[in-house]
Amino acid sequence: MANYYTETPELKYHLRHPLMKRIVELKERDYADKDKFDYAPQNLEDAMDNYDRVLDIVGEICGEIIGPNAEGVDHDGPKCENGRVTYAPGTSVNLDATRKAGLMGMAMPRRFGGLNFPIVPYIMAADMVSSADAGFENLWGLQDCAETLYEFGNEDQKQRFLTRVCAGETMSMDLTEPDAGSDLQSVMLKATYSEADGSWLLNGVKRFITNGDADIHLVLARSEEGTKDGRGLSMFIYDKRQGGVDVRRIENKMGIKGSPTCELVYKNAHAELCGDRKLGLIKYVMALMNGARLGIAAQGVGISQAAYNEALAYARDRKQFGKAIIEFPAVADMLSTIKAKLDASRALLYETARFVDVYKALDDISKERKLTPEERQEQKKYAKLADAFTPLAKGMGSEFANQNTYDCIQIHGGSGFMKEYKCERIYRDARITSIYEGTTQLQTVAAIRYVTSGAYAAKIAEYDQQPVAPELDIFKNKLKDMADKTQMAVNQVNESKSQEFHDLVARRLYEMTAYTVMGYLILHDATEEPEMFGVSARNFIRYAEAEVEKHMTFIRKFQEESLADYRKA
Length: 569
Description:
Layout: H1 9-15, H2 19-28, H3 44-76, E1 79-81, E2 84-86, H4 89-100, H5 119-132, H6 134-140, H7 144-152, H8 155-167, E3 171-174, E4 190-194, E5 199-210, E6 216-222, E7 233-239, E8 245-250, E9 261-274, H9 280-317, E10 319-320, E11 323-324, H10 329-365, H11 373-412, H12 422-431, H13 440-453, H14 455-464, H15 473-496, H16 499-528, H17 530-557, H18 563-568
Parallel strand pairs: 3-6
Antiparallel strand pairs: 1-2, 4-5, 5-9, 6-7, 7-9, 8-9, 10-11
Helix pairs in contact: 2-10, 3-4, 3-5, 5-6, 5-9, 5-10, 7-9, 9-10, 9-11, 9-12, 10-11, 10-16, 10-17, 11-12, 11-13, 13-16, 14-16, 15-16, 15-17, 16-17
């Protein structure tokens, strides 16, 4: 039987990371649930075994149901009739399988019917689901929204809505509008409070809403009359059972066709406030987007895994000029580069997920009791790391997914352009990952202050202190050189005191930093598991070294007067 978990040993490796001990202790509150729920773990070993068993179930569902359904779902797609969405038949089968397996509230507390999993194993499930069908991950993975509801909703809302999510109901986040894409402070969907109804009423249009006919929606709307910026926006919960929202149409997309991307019309739709007024964008959407961006990072890694699997299988099977094409150096080089980028982006994904896990758990604990001074320091440390690493993981994971699916088709040659092969669908599915939940350009904007302030450099210095296998010393020296060149480029930009120059080369600085961080992470992985990661580490660092050199040369030789050329472009 096909199983995406047992067939991807890299997942088990990342699940065993030493920081998981601290993560589990915090998440389980020293195993306080062991006497309340018969499925709650008794200790660390029990918890880790539980994650392993559930991930094995996810892997089996991906291998036996979601993966085999993917082509049919891509062909059939969802339908919209009379303002409602009907999923493709394969999507309904997928949802039924994940619901029956209890996988719809993985990260939610047990008191709401969830599994109380940390972010790391949940993201591993998302990684596998994305590899099986990236479009279905957009439906299943929107349980991310439940995290925001859990974090900011009141107890009554948690009891009413989170129990439904854990039981299998779907969610959506209704943020963008025809005139408010990345610029969410321009949202104009109107929220007015009706004294007669004792409810908020929502009116307006939302566009590009993933799974727009979901059961429960988190909606960004303008609650403060006369405002035009983010300070007039609040977050609302809309329950489909209340009525008042119709699907005008489903977008005809390039990829992820199984996921209905909808235009919604709100007409006096009853909704309730989530959290406090005026904090919808400033606080709640920022938290929601960070979670969503980590999910897209996982989606990118899963797509890269699918691309590597397809490319490797084809290269071994396809014969030209009397031998398998994997024996040709050009093809072997492409395959090794795909694998190196996959392993590096996965290392960055799980490093980020661990940072998020620690700070989220401590933040949750702070609502129950006062944190100790040591815990407050720990929370601050990991919150900063999570904020810095999330845009790296999302940006690079999605860019590598696009590059890897491109190369996967190239290895297939003309056959890769045909719909008979999975790589054609995987390629189309990958393209959106560097656009939605914040384009790569916006990830650069989010990350660049950590580049120019030296925050990444400090973390890289920590990584440099970790021991490596003697045979990898040469690659550690390459990474030190990459870090030095990145710092030289940063210094040049800072010393220029030109905002225009800063903005122009920000993407290059971002990538130089990301390549260096990923290089150190995969070098550590290769030291721990040389058979699993040794080749990828060497190949990735060679590749990254050339990329850093390219960017550094551009920045070093760039002249201020050259800005005029870019203004004309």
